[in-house]
Amino acid sequence: MTDAALTTTVRTVQGTCHHDCPDSCGWMVTVEEVPDAAPVAVKLRGWSEHPYSAGELCPKVNRFLDRVYSPERLLHPLRRVGPKGSGEFEQITWHEALTDISANLHRVIDEHGAEAVLPYSDAGNQSLVSLMGLSGRFFGHMGATKLVRAICGVTVGAGMSKTMGSPRGLDPMEHEHSKLIILWGTNTRLTNRHLWPTIETARANGARLVVIDPIRTLTADAVNSAVGDQFIQPLPGTDIAMMLAVMHVLIRDGLTNDDWVADHTLGFDELRAAVADWTPERAAEVCSVDATVITQLAHDYATIRPAGIRTLVGPEHHENGAMFHRTLACLPALTGAWAERGGGLSKSTGAWTESNIDVDAMLRPDMEVGDARTLNMSRLGEILTHPHAGETDGPGIHAFINWNCNPVVTTPNAEATRRGLLRDDLFTVVHEQFMTDTARYADIVLPATTQIEADDIVLSWGSLHINYNHAAIDPPGETVNNTELFRRLAAAMGYTEPALFDDDDTIMREALPAIDIDALRSLGWLRADYPDDGRPFGDGDFDTPTGRVHLASDELEAMGQPRMPTYVAPNEGPGGDATLVAQFPLQLLTPKHHARFLNSGYSHLPKHGPAEGGPFVELSAEDAAHRQLADGDVARVWNHRGSIEVPVKITERLRPGVIAIPWGWWSAHHSDGKTVNALTNDTLTEWGGGVAFWDTLVEVGHPA
Ligand SMILES: Nc1nc2c(c(=O)[nH]1)N[C@H]1C(S)=C(S)[C@@H](COP(=O)(O)OP(=O)(O)OC[C@H]3O[C@@H](n4cnc5c(=O)[nH]c(N)nc54)[C@H](O)[C@@H]3O)O[C@H]1N2
Ligand SMILES: Nc1nc2c(c(=O)[nH]1)N[C@H]1C(S)=C(S)[C@@H](COP(=O)(O)OP(=O)(O)OC[C@H]3O[C@@H](n4cnc5c(=O)[nH]c(N)nc54)[C@H](O)[C@@H]3O)O[C@H]1N2
Ligand code: SF4
Ligand SMILES: [Mo]
Questions:
Q1: Whole-angstrom Cα distance, residue 114 to residue 486?
Q2: Going from the N-terminus, what domains does the chain have, and what CATH number goes with each?
Q3: Ligand 3 pocket, 213 CB below 6 A?
Q4: 529 CB burial (10 A radius; 0-12, 13-18, 19+)
Q5: What pLDDT is recorded for position 5?
Q6: What is the mean pLDDT of residues 560-566?
Q7: 588 within ligand 1 shell (Cβ under 6 A)
């Protein structure tokens, strides 16, 4: 035995995955320590005692330590020395970086006002402290522009709330009790894989599965028609028409639960009138799904009980994304599905877990100076390229502070974002773990910790669990976590308010006043309150002012929106702008596709990107033949926003007229340096603040 082995101590540290993923898996890190050296994490595995993830992680995070110890990891502050985007930087000290940043922020504020500063972040680390920590206080105190962070999931809740009064839905684990499970626009086996065992348990108990998706996804592949499962493949953005026809059939064929409707809904007569014209035949024309399939869906939904619908985020990425969720939430009310355990609708569980957060204590709106405007993150290209920051009054953006997300890859209309970041009169700071496509445009890059380097709390949005994350090793190099970044920035700016300097433990306690943080720390997880009988609305009692499901909505009417579920064809879709359709006849979907990717966060790592191959465009044999394209050819995909070149993959997963390009690859992975979001639509959803990535029309052909 060597001396080192004699003196090595080994410990295990419990933690929780921080990725923007519904599963929030528990993990266990093995750490080795030898005297006079920094502790080293040697193993990271699923934590078998975690009640949801039960010891399993995923192909993204199984190699998490490769990420932590990657030679590409940013460990020191950097200052740009080459042109923006060139990736040429020199190492500087934190002191130099903070001096430079505070001088530039003060200059911008003096010249243009504090609203010329745009803080820009999302859920790259979705843990409580990292996501909501001190940034709100810091920028509020500065008076900077406020960001609408609604690129993911917010529109689902906004749509559903107009029907049910809140985004509260079923605990997805309740689908174990469902006898019919409709996965409506969610790719569970890929994006929410730890829910799949629950679905399989239900199926083993005889549940039937229906998958509704414009793509024959990995999840659709699980459909077994021999046992009555079904895969339904509507055209993208048209599901509302199908839902209206389902309601039509439920009412026409006497399949509604009239007592439940009378006791717990408002506006049924109006709804009946609104769907009277929506025959399955009419919907079939819109969705391109057989009328018999729609009729059967309605009959199955009413008669195979309990019937649980599961949705997540995908379908919100349409111009009518909020109405999709508002309309979907009407279905269980018509059949009284909520009355039975396993019946109802599940989506993000954030409404259950996050209700524990004292948002005001966390964000401290009382510290805000002035009445700063808000700008929507999905309009970043427009905001940065427009002299008056998009469509609002006020100054253009002259300082861009980015952490916790990678907008050059992840925002729609991304070439506009890139053009904005190229502006010489824009001062950009990026706090990151890696030299991402966005970080390349920074004037100053600051190094960020990973999840095993700082304590935090992860409130799951795929289950009811609130989880602790213990730091397992020290932050490497000069990395800091998101709150330490803002403590340092506040000091550099000369701010003195004590709340800008709260430590992470204080922030946790302020944010979760009703949670015993010490117990959470020692147990690793606890479960948010949820009704013991599994039925969130078993006795009615919805969260609307009337306590009823609002089939007709005064609230929406007051916002200038249709008061009833209504199908409005997306402008950038087959039923929309005829000139665009003539020029760009194909609908482009760009969803999550790769098991080894988590958004844009893994394609650059050697065991992830190369293992997934590279980007490609999938299209039906018919669409390919029409354009004389063969498998493996390089095709150009273009529209009025941009153009990219990618190899062709002929597929049976898509119907003619719909194509797909996987998302998450960086500029370097594309031969022409542009990613798929060069093409996507940055039109906002009709309400809810989301964005219509997937109402994107394109044409495909041979490169010029
Ligand atoms: N492996 C992996 N897992 C992930 C992620 C990842 O990048 N990789 N990302 C995480 C994140 S941030 C999120 S938000 C979740 C998202 O989780 P999901 O919402 O399950 O996934 P998406 O791929 O966004 O969308 C789901 C499905 O919606 C379909 N869809 C698109 N338009 C329509 C439509 O009009 N109607 C219907 N019915 N379906 C439609 C898409 O084809 C897609 O298959 O996944 C998380 N999990
Ligand atoms: N075409 C298309 N575009 C999409 C989508 C799509 O399906 N198709 N999905 C949309 C959705 S649902 C989402 S959620 C967004 C996601 O958009 P982003 O949030 O931009 O995506 P991520 O790739 O998760 O980027 C997270 C970044 O944060 C960094 N990071 C991780 N932890 C920390 C930390 O603790 N501190 C700091 N400072 N940085 C950290 C990671 O290194 C990574 O680069 O993309 C949206 N864009
Ligand atoms: S990315 Fe999602 S599935 Fe993978 S370990 Fe993290 S929470 Fe679990
Ligand atoms: Mo997301």
A1: 17
A2: 78-152+354-450+478-508 (3.40.50.740), 155-347 (3.40.228.10), 578-701 (2.40.40.20)
A3: no
A4: exposed
A5: 64
A6: 96
A7: no
